[in-house]
Amino acid sequence: MSRLPAVKVLVTRPKQQAVRLAEQLAQAGARPITVPLLTFRTRTDNENQMLSQQGNRFDWLFFSSINGVEHFQALVDKFSNLEEWKHCQIAAVGQKTADALKRVFGRKADIVPAAYTADCLAKEFSAAYDPASRILLIQGNLSRPALANGLKQNGYAFEKMVVYDTVEEKGNQELLYKVLQKDQPDVLTFTSPSSIEAFHSFIGQAEMEMDQLDKLCLVIGPTTEEAAKRHGFHNILVPAQFTTESMIDALLHYYEQQRTGE
């Protein structure tokens, strides 16, 4: 089995998610260095309290991330009862989100698009389901508008429920400085555009920033790739599937090519 060389890989995922990625990297032979740049907070405002108690108003629940699933569950557990939502059909952007929904609802998602993007979900749903469906779109405060736009363009009425906020982990700014200066990771990993925004917000020094832009930048998918390009990264690696497992596969393939000179 191919293994990674002992390259130092910076893991910037939020703490709860970073552990698994770091374990996977270590198992593959790399040396992960974890510096969470973001954290997530459930939005427990009055609007979400009311929506959590109105499951009978909706036919479909749309989820674009595992975070959405987890924070929706937290709100329903706090203010309502999951049984009031189990009649709803469920749409999930990707398989990981669908897996999380199965754990919460005890059944498979009713639709998961062939490509794990919000655009693809909107397109496939619009081709198969009644525009009269009552939809609750469950998102974070920084979720892309692609899914909402796709539903709107195809005549679907829906409500949004922003169940969590993504905020920068300011307490780790000094740790990031130290890691970049002393450990000098070979690979930077990012699993969201907001993690790239936080990275550049934290380092904020032109000289240090320029030193990072030539490093291998491993991102989870096209929206994160766009953010990496926008911030000036030159050497960007994107996996075929938008999962952390595929990120590691892409990294293995990259270093295999480096070894063979292809």
Number of strands: 10
Taken as a percent bin, the fraction of beta residues is 15-25%
Class from helix and strand fractions: alpha/beta
Q: How much helicity do the residues have?
A: 40-55%
Number of helices: 11
Detail the poorly predicted runs: none
Cα separation of the termini = 19 Å
Identify the strand order in the major beta sheet.
Answer: 2-1-8-9-10
Explain this structure:
With 262 residues, the chain is an alpha/beta fold. It is built from 11 helices and 10 strands. Strand 4 (60-63), helix 3 (66-79) and strand 5 form a beta-alpha-beta unit. The model has no long low-confidence stretch (mean pLDDT 91).
Write the SSE topology:
Elements: E1 8-11, H1 15-27, E2 31-34, E3 38-42, H2 46-52, E4 60-63, H3 66-79, E5 89-92, H4 95-105, H5 118-128, E6 135-140, H6 146-153, E7 158-168, H7 173-183, E8 187-190, H8 193-203, H9 206-213, E9 216-219, H10 222-230, E10 235-237, H11 244-260
Helix pairs in contact: 2-3, 3-4, 5-6, 8-10
